[in-house]
Amino acid sequence: MSQNEHDSELGQTPEHQEADNPLIAELETLRNELDQLRAASLLERADLENQRKRVARDIEMARKFANERLLGDLLPVFDSLDAGLAAAGGEANPLREGLELTYRQLLKVAGDNGLTVLDPVGAPFNPEHHQAISQADAPDAAPGSVVQVFQKGYLLNDRLLRPALVVVARQE
Fold it and tell me: Is 15 helix (H, G, I), strand (E, B) or coil?
C-alpha cells in the first residue's frame, strides 16, 4: 500500500498533511512574507525612480529660469535703448551707431540666456503674448492684427516674461 492510499484510509488528504506539518505551514508563511517584501521593494524602487525624475525636472526648470529676475530687471534697459534709438532718428551718426551696437550686444547676451523679443507688428493678436491697450481703424491691416507696439514683450524659454502692449486693428 502506498503512502497516499494509507493516508486516504486514515482520512487525510495532502492538504491535511500540510496543515498538520508545522514546517510546511512555516514555509508558506515565509513565502507569503517574501512575496510581500518583493512587492514592497518594487514599490520603493518605483517611488525612488519617480523622485529622481521629479528632482531632475526641478533642476532643469531651475536652470532654465535661474536668470529670470536678472533678465526681468534688464527689460527697462531694453525699453530705454528702444526709446533712445527712436529719438536718434533714422540718420546714421556715431551716437545712433553706438546705441545700436550696445542694443544688439545686449540682445545677443539675453538671447543666449533664453530671452526672446516679442515685436508683433502685423501679426495676429495673441492674448497669451499680447496685451491690447486699444483698437484702431486700420484699412491696410487685417482685422484683429497688431498695428502698433507701444512696448515690446519678452519670452524667457517660451514662458511669458512680459506681454507686448499693442494696438489691434478693429474688427469690422
Answer: helix
